[in-house]
Amino acid sequence: MGWRVRAIRGATTVPENSVSAIREAVHELLDELEAHNRLDPNEIVSITFSVTRDLDAAFPATIARERPHWSNVPLFDVQQMHVEGSMERCIRFLIHFNTPDPDVEIYHPYLRQARSLRPDWSLAQAALAQKSAVKAH
Q: Is the dihedral of CA 69, 46, 60, 33 positive or negative?
């Protein structure tokens, strides 16, 4: 079988609408992504970041471009559709990437209060992260 496009989802929250809070959360989210996924920035098709309407101090894509080897990754920011009662100050991403391994294990990072968005994945991701940590030692 040849190369295949796969996707990774993830999310986090920030305590306030500030450049520093958004920068810290985006880097933490992408650090977690890179720590648990075999992801080569050259194989990323595109990344869409969405933010809730209460976050407008910084573009997550601009922050992501600060990372080594991410300057040529196609990045896009959008505002998340507002639904009354939904999570506030939330940053999400959807990453499409090419892989020669159609069975590659994917870790979807959900951090901080965003863990509650996908509690089913949070448990599975914790097990996968623990398995990866054991392999590293």
A: negative
Rounded to 5°, the CA angle 103-43-12 comes to 80
Q: Give the pLDDT confidence score for residue 131 in this predicted structure.
A: 61
Give pLDDT tens digits for 76-93. 999 999 999 999 999 999
Alpha carbon distance 106, 37 (integer Å): 6
CA pair distance 64, 62, nearest whole angstrom: 5
Judge whether 97 and 39 are in contact, CB under 8 Å.
yes
Best CA proximity match to 61, nearest among 53, 44, 49, 78: 49
CA pair distance 95, 7, nearest whole angstrom? 5
Segments making up each domain of the chain, as ranges: 4-136
CATH 1.10.10.10 assigned to domain 4-136? The reply is no
114 vs 25: CA distance, rounded Å: 11
